[in-house]
């Protein structure tokens, strides 16, 4: 039996004709409120983070999986209706929806706890409508319980930027007390750095934006320089958050012997040729990051609560989602951009 009501229409933004953000790829839409399937939750959206993946989808760096999809996969919402086979969340519960939306559960990757590599995996805002709207559906099995007393705009970036940053940090094989380099310093990077610092790392931030360098130093980075200037000491590990392939050899050159570079993005411009002796010899490793598992999400959210992670956010009303995406494209967002229902919105 379906609980709650699903009458009326939703308001939101969909990707129309992909192209440069200046061409206006987002269009405002009104659609019937979707009916939850047997295993779905219908959420009234309290906040939705604006991820660089949303920008890649709007501009066509990631080919659309379906026409006129509503993006957004850092969703904080309240359950307003639930499918007949749901049991984890009651109507009124606060729930998070994230990037990973579905897996087959039977392939060899799922069976060995690598569901992020499932060939049948599906994604919020790419394969199904996401959170750039006032209501959205989230499969219950891929939803996260969220604290009732936290600010929704603070929680939203945790649900992708935080989870992916956490997985990228683990993929970087940072040793205890190690030296970590972070290339690019946006939503994901500034959350991952807080985890690394809490675990005793020395962190060097390398990014082109002066405001981002200032934020990094305020959050505890030992140094903050331009991405091409290099860190002040060799790195045990590095994470590349900027979608710039030219930085791969730069970061590899900054690694100490046995160091690892973890590339966090879903999209990266072409990587220049690597020189074996300069970039890879002495057991330097180059690793990619693909999505995340649900366990990554649970582990990160528990870590975030334990160490008191705080996101630096700029909030935008839902009606200005196109402006939020344009500001992200132009590097005008310091930290994370978050959409909230229309009303007061401000930088925090």
Write the layout of secondary structure elements.
Elements: E1 3-4, E2 9-15, E3 26-32, E4 40-50, H1 52-59, E5 75-82, E6 94-97, E7 100-102, H2 108-111, E8 122-123, E9 135-139, E10 143-145, H3 152-155, H4 161-171, E11 179-183, H5 187-198, E12 202-206, H6 210-218, E13 223-225, E14 235-240, H7 247-254, E15 255-263, H8 276-280, E16 285-288, H9 294-307, E17 313-317, H10 321-329, E18 336-340
Parallel strand pairs: 11-12, 11-14, 12-13, 14-15, 15-16, 17-18
Antiparallel strand pairs: 1-5, 2-3, 4-5, 4-9, 4-18, 5-6, 6-10, 7-8
Helix pairs in contact: 4-5, 4-9
Enzyme class: oxidoreductase
Catalytic activity: a secondary alcohol + NAD(+) = a ketone + NADH + H(+); a primary alcohol + NAD(+) = an aldehyde + NADH + H(+)
Family: Belongs to the zinc-containing alcohol dehydrogenase family.
Structure, described:
- The chain has two domains: 3-159 and 312-340, Medium-chain alcohol dehydrogenases, catalytic domain (Quinone Oxidoreductase, Chain A, domain 1, Alpha-Beta Complex), CATH 3.90.180.10; 163-288, Rossmann fold (3-Layer(aba) Sandwich), CATH 3.40.50.
- The chain contains ten helices and 18 strands.
- It has helices spanning 52-59, 108-111, 152-155, 161-171, 187-198, 210-218, 247-254, 276-280, 294-307, 321-329, and strands spanning 3-4, 9-15, 26-32, 40-50, 75-82, 94-97, 100-102, 122-123, 135-139, 143-145, 179-183, 202-206, 223-225, 235-240, 255-263, 285-288, 313-317, 336-340.
- The strands form four sheets. Strands 1, 4, 5, 6, 9, 10, 17 and 18 form an eight-stranded mixed beta sheet that branches.
- The radius of gyration is 20 Å and the shape is globular.
- The protein starts with a strand and ends in an 8-residue tail after the last strand.
- Its cofactor is Zn(2+).
- Pfam families: ADH_N.
- Keywords: Metal-binding, Oxidoreductase, Zinc.
- GO terms for molecular function: oxidoreductase activity.
